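Researcher: Sequence recovery benchmark, item below. Answer with residues only.
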């Protein structure tokens, strides 16, 4: 049986969407370390309309990060369907990897969001704070379920209080987290 088409948000104000978002939960990905915590993304709108993406996570006390670019998949569409391009490995960026970033739900205050993509292999629950009340979390999980996601794969992200500010902690300058994550560690 074919899955229904996903409902993607329309009319998202990209300027309001910019800033820091904390990962509350996600489907585990080979691109992130299994023991990653304090995972967050910071989006900055560029003059050309593209978005600078900085994804960070802390693993074994070190800050791992990767930078990329997001852009509208179809500039003429009002749907919040973006493409995100990263170059890997982060320590020697030579191979472009492009993925879908679809805003499936965004509250009116731009406080929490549900992000997915068409294959339903990746899912993120994001929030402007590093915590989200259980009722709102459950509503986002239910929305994901309605969109055809197997929500049993969702894993909550561990955060410290207070969260790291700026670029605290030693950097993983060798990209060890990326290599480990590719090996399933």
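Model:
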């Amino acid at each position: 049986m074919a899955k229904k088409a996903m409902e993607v948000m329309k009319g998202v104000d990209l300027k309001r969407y910019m800033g820091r978002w904390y990962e509350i939960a996600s489907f585990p990905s080979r691109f992130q370390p299994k023991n990653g915590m304090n995972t967050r993304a910071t989006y900055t709108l560029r003059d050309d309309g593209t978005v600078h993406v900085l994804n960070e996570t802390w693993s074994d006390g070190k800050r791992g990060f990767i930078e990329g670019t997001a852009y509208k998949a179809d500039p003429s569409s009002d749907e919040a369907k973006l493409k995100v391009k990263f170059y890997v490995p982060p320590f020697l960026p030579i191979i472009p990897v492009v993925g879908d970033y679809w805003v499936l739900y965004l509250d009116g205050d731009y406080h929490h969001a549900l992000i997915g993509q068409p294959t339903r292999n990746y899912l993120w629950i994001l929030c402007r704070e590093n915590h989200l009340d259980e009722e709102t979390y459950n509503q986002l999980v239910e929305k994901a379920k309605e969109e055809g996601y197997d929500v049993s794969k969702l894993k909550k992200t561990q955060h410290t209080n207070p969260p790291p500010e700026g670029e605290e902690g030693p950097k993983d300058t060798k990209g060890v987290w990326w290599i480990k994550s590719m090996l399933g560690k």
